[in-house]
Structure formats: C-alpha cells, structure tokens
Structure prediction request, 238 residues.
Amino acid sequence: MSLSDILHYLRIGGFTLAFLLLASVVALGVAIERLIALWGVSEHSRALGDTVHKHLLRGDVAAARTATERSDAAVADIFLAGFDRFERTRGACDGVDSAVERERAQVGLRLRRNLWILATIGSLTPFVGLFGTVAGIMKSFKDLGLDVSAGGTGGTGAVMTGISEALVATAVGILVAVQAMAFYNYFQARLSRVLVELRLLGDEFVELLRERPINPPSTTASTATSPAPVETRPQPEA
Prediction:
C-alpha cells in the first residue's frame, strides 16, 4: 500500500480512523513505558533479597535495613514496611507479616499502573471501527439515493467502492485491538510471575526476621588476653 493510498483512506475514514490511529500510538507508548518500568524488577529484587537474608541469618538487623534503604528494587519497600513494624513492636515481630502483605499489595498496584489503558483500547477499538464502517455504509447509500433522485444511473460500482472504503475502519479497529490485547496479556503474564516472586521474598523475609539469632556474633574478632607472668625475684639471704 502506497503513501497515497494511506492518505486516501485517512481522508475517507475521517475522525474514526484518526481516533483508531491515535489509540494505536497510545497503546504502543504505554507498552514501552511499562517495559522500561518492569525492566530488571525480578533480578534486582532477588539480589536485594539475598543480601538481606544473609544479614538476617547472622542476626544483623541494622545491616539488613541499611542495605534495603540503599536499594531501589521493588521489594525494598516491602522490606522497609516490615522493618518499620519490627521497630515499633520493639523486636516482637507482631504484625510484621500483615505490614509486609499490605505493602506488597501497594507495590503490585504500582506495577500494574496504566495497564487498564491497554485493556480499554483492546475492548473499545473494534466497536469504534464498526461504528466507522456503519457510518461509511450509510453515507454510501445516502449518496446513491441522491444520485438516483437527481436522475443518475445509481450504479452499484460507486456503492461498492464506498462500502469497501468504509470497511477499512473495521479492519484498523481490529488490528489496534489485537495490538493492545497482545501487550496487555504479555504484561499480565509477566506481572503474575513478578508478584509471586515478591510474595515468596516477603514470606522468607518474615520467617528470617522471626528466627534470627537473638545475640548476633560480633563483627570484630576478640582476642583472649592471658595474664602477664609475675616475675619472681630471689630473696636476699639473711
């Protein structure tokens, strides 16, 4: 299809076809934005989880929190919520699991942001295209009626041409819907795996926080000092 044909169909489609092309661009933009936002989420979360778990296995809660505060991984907010609850309960771990679960739900909502746009475009664009087609067919029959009333031949060739041009709106609407739903299903499947990993990391974090050693070993090696030998001097003879 040449550029002139595309411009011709754009002129014939009018507002409907312009709306469908705009929806296609929006869907592509949302897909790129979500792809960037989700890039490396699982890898960064697993790396932070390994670091925090190593500190908690030694009972070093302060080092685990420091590592969490320095990270920008998605699971960092979940760990911080658990640490905050842990500090408020003075190490009793009461309610830590519920705090972690609430923050995990918040993180899931942030990761799903803008996906509703893809779902909306995928469900609406076929109907928008169908509306454009119906409007185009109605226009073709109207033109045919005017031609007949004006004494024209009213040939079916002009009507068929108008109908074929009107069907372009339906075709474009279906293509845009396929594009949007393909993106949506991909991100849904990917987010399902990410959320499962975040849940597992959060559950393991709560378990290690509860089962941590109470008295962590000191990081500095202590050296045992033996008492210095007492020097005995010979007593002078009387």
In short: The two ends are 127 Å apart (CA to CA). The chain has eight helices and no strands. The chain has one domain: 10-210.
